[in-house]
Each structure stands twice: as C-alpha cells, then as structure tokens.
Amino acid sequence: MLKLNSFNDIQTYKNEVIPFLEQDEIINNLALGLLLGVKNEQPMVMATVTKENKMVMALFQTHPKQIILSKAVEFTVDEIQQLAVLLDENLADIPGFIGEKDLTNQLAKAITNLRKRVPHIQMNQRLYSLNEIEKKPAENGKLKRMGFVNLPLVKEWVYQFCIDINEPMSREDAEAKAKDLIERGRVYGWEIDGEIVSMANASRPTKSNITVNFVFTPLSERKKGYASSCVSALTHLMLNSGYKTTSLYTDLDNPTSNKIYMEIGYKPLIDSIVIHFK
C-alpha cells in the first residue's frame, strides 16, 4: 500500500529527501539541484511516496506548471492508480508533471480520468550525462564568462531561448533571469574575434554533477559549430572544476542538438516527458 506524505517545512523535507535523491544523483538532478538551491522560498509541493514505510518517490514543485517526479521504484498498474488517487485527494492543484517518460505518461493518464482534464505533451526530452569529452571545441574561439556588461545580450538570448522551447516569458522576466544567471557566475559565451556568437550556462550543482542549460545561438550564427564548441568548452571547464559528470536535457524533436551533444561525448540515460493539463 502506497502512502503520500506531505511536508510544510523545507528543512525537514530536505533532510528527508536529499539522501534519497542522491542515490541516483544524475537522474534526479532536476529535483535535487533545485532543492539544494532553495533557501527561503516555499515550494508549492513537497511530498514523498512510501511503500511499507520505505521511500519510493519524491515529488517537488517550484515551477507553476509542473510537479517534478523523482526516479521511483517500478510501480504496478494498480499502484499507479493508487498514487493518482492519493494526489487527487491531497493536492488542490495538479498542473502537470515532468519525469521519466513511461511512469509520467501512466500517472498523467490516471489523473486525467480522475479530474477530467486534457493532458498536453509540452516536450519529449532525453537526459544525457558525460564524464569524458570526446570532441574538443574549435581552436578559433574561446570561452568567456558573461558579466553585467553582457546583460543586454544575455537578456535577449534568454528571451529567445524560451520562445524556442515553447516556454515564452516576458522581457521583464527574461531580464530577471539573465541577472540571476550572471550573478551565479556560470553563464558563458563562445567568443570569435571579439564577438559572442553562442551561449551556455551551468546550473543546479550537486555533489558531483552539474547541468548544462540555456544553450542558445542566434539564427544568424547557427550551423557553424559554435554551440558545440561552447558546450564542449563549458563542459571541460566544469569537469576541471571538480565535477565528476555533467548532464543536460534535450528536446527529442530537435535531432540536430541531440547529435551535437552525443558527438561531444554525452550519453543518453533516460527519456523524460513534460505533460501539462489543460
């Protein structure tokens, strides 16, 4: 029998959940990295699922449109239905999920039947990890850390990146995100002859892993290998900084980016899906 345990105190939740998430640090990098970064904010959902008093899943929400599902044990069809009923009874709002593809699809279908909602696949993703670079960056450019002098460029590229992944934000929010990325000190550009032509960011550090995201190249500079060089150089920098692995998510509907990352040395781990309820 499954049991849903809800938490109101972030520190208590961290103490309970972080050791569980760290058992699969890379696969759980989204929930783990966000949870480690939470300070005074109050997440919208903090919960665990237990089976015979043993934790088998963690649920965590900071994004208004989706609840993160951690790696879980293999649930039976009946247990997925039990979990759906528990969520339906205990959560006022279930806007969507992000998690391993098969489990997330099955849980979303069960929730749809209970709440008469319409599921919408926002993105089919694949999670990759790397511990050794196979393709080095081109020698005609260099990696440059972006500072506040680059804020107008980072703001515009964050704005365009979010449009590209079908998660548009206002220019005001894009500026706030750009400032945050710059303040954290891990957003870099690939520089050719003094001009920044591509961007990538390193985010959500955990004990031994860090995630590469916000990879963006403007249309005028695409198909020149700049994104590949930028990601390769940033990955190399993170590995040299002490991280044993780097990870990233890709959109499976973009075969070009998947090919680029695999050439660098990224290996597929799991398929993930983002589902929103209408």
Structure description:
One of its GO terms (molecular function) is acyltransferase activity, transferring groups other than amino-acyl groups. InterPro entries: Acyl_CoA_acyltransferase (IPR016181), GNAT_dom (IPR000182). Residues 149-278 form the N-acetyltransferase domain. This is N-acetyltransferase domain-containing protein. The radius of gyration is 19 Å and the shape is elongated. It has 8 helices and 12 strands. The chain has helices at residues 10-21, 29-37, 77-90, 101-115, 151-164, 171-184, 226-240, 255-264, and strands spanning 2-6, 45-51, 54-61, 67-69, 96-100, 119-130, 142-145, 187-192, 195-203, 209-216, 245-251, 267-277. It folds into 2 domains: 2-117; 129-270, Gcn5-related N-acetyltransferase (GNAT) (Aminopeptidase). With 278 residues, the protein is an alpha+beta fold.
Summarize the SSE layout with pairings.
Blueprint: E1 2-6, H1 10-21, H2 29-37, E2 45-51, E3 54-61, E4 67-69, H3 77-90, E5 96-100, H4 101-115, E6 119-130, E7 142-145, H5 151-164, H6 171-184, E8 187-192, E9 195-203, E10 209-216, H7 226-240, E11 245-251, H8 255-264, E12 267-277
Parallel strand pairs: 4-5, 10-11
Antiparallel strand pairs: 1-2, 2-3, 3-4, 5-12, 6-11, 6-12, 7-8, 8-9, 9-10
